[in-house]
Amino acid sequence: MTYTLALDAADEALIERYAAKENLSVPDFMLKATKETIERRIHVARPKARDEMTNEEFDAMLERGMEDIRQGKVTPVNEVFAEIRRELGLNGTV
How far is CA 39 from CA 22, 23, 43, 48, in A? Predict the structure, then answer.
């Protein structure tokens, strides 16, 4: 995918200075800045560990899980592990 930006001279000079500070070419700096912006916008929070949850949060999480089970929103464990093995290229190994 290719994008073209129309920048005035002041903006162009600013980008060039930031790129130089990071020892990057302007295209590499723009790619890095774009990726970082996207990552911040789509960041998925790390799940909380049990000891980071209140009892109420833990109970609510369990209830959501139980409701998923009741609604049939489940995948058999052997299918899940088979998919993980495929993704990791383990193809039938342990």
Answer: 19, 22, 6, 20
Give pLDDT < 50 ranges for the chain.
none
The pLDDT value given to residue 94: 54
Q: Looking at the structure, do residues 34 and 62 belong to the same domain, yes or no?
A: no
Which pair of structure tokens corresponds to residue 25? 């070419």
Domain holding 72, by residue range, is 50-88
Q: What pLDDT is recorded for position 17?
A: 92
- pLDDT confidence of residue 93: 57
79 within domain boundaries: yes
Is the pTM value of this prediction over 0.70? no
Contact 80, 87 (CB under 8 A): no
DSSP 33-86: HHHHHHHHHT--PPPPPGGGS-HHHHHHHHHHHHHHHHTT----HHHHHHHHHH
* 8: helix, strand or coil: coil
